[in-house]
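Quick one, T. Sequence first:
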Amino acid sequence: MPSKISPQAFVDRDALIGEGVTIEPFAFVGPNVKIGDRTWIGPNANIMNRTTIGADCKIFPGAVVGAVPQDLKFADEPTDIIIGNRTIIRECVTIHRATVDRKKTVVGDDCLIMAYVHLAHDVHVGNHVIIA
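Structure tokens:
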């Protein structure tokens, strides 16, 4: 199944988009982003630099995934964020990249991150977790 990318979305030319991905209008997908098969990126969602999202995920409007951390020591080091398979990230959630302390911010498989949650840098969330 081919991917459906709205002409009103911005997808960086270096982003890797899987099969059957939907990217809605006004979504932003930055450089060094990988989006797994059949994932849905809602309107106005922001997927920023060095983010990997698994297959069958849903990222709702207003979510910001992969922004730089709110840590004054952060100096734009090459750190990552990894979202597992079948994870749902609801409206206005923010999940920040790691610092050099752990190098990765991770959210596991089959998670539900409810609206307005903030997951700070370096956090590691396991599988089958619901956060409200």
